[in-house]
Every structure is written in structure tokens, then in C-alpha cells.
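Entry for the shared binder. Reason: the reviewer on the internal report wants the predicted structure included alongside the sequence.
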Amino acid sequence: MCSIIGYSGSEIAAPIIVKGLKRMEYRGYDSVGVATESKNQIELKKGIGKVSEVNSKIQLDTLPGKIGIGHTRWA
């Protein structure tokens, strides 16, 4: 199983995406990734573990940009 969430709006996307991924973590908790678009560049962070664990290690919620997508995976 997995979960996928996207955001496009006026706020910075990454914190909203990470919050949504935490709410859907029951659908997958083995790995997580977040990608955002900023200044025509794709910014990406991913890691193995639960959303909160990965976020505390690599700060998923600090990615720039107002458009993004996130996923969790259950292997």
C-alpha cells in the first residue's frame, strides 16, 4: 500500500504535504518522499522510516516552493 498527496496553492507546499502524509501514514510507513518545484527546479528529499523520523533527520518540511507532491510506501 501507499499514499500520495499533492498541493498547489499560495502557501509553502512542503509543511502542508508533510502534515497530510502524517495523517495518511497508516497506508504506508516504510519510506517517505517529498518533491517540490521552486524556480523551475525540482527539489526532492526522501528517506526510509516513518514520516516523523525522516522529517526529523532531513527536514522534509523545509523544501521551498508552492507546488509539491509527497508519498509514503509500505514495502
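Summary line for the report: The helical segments are 13-23, 51-58.
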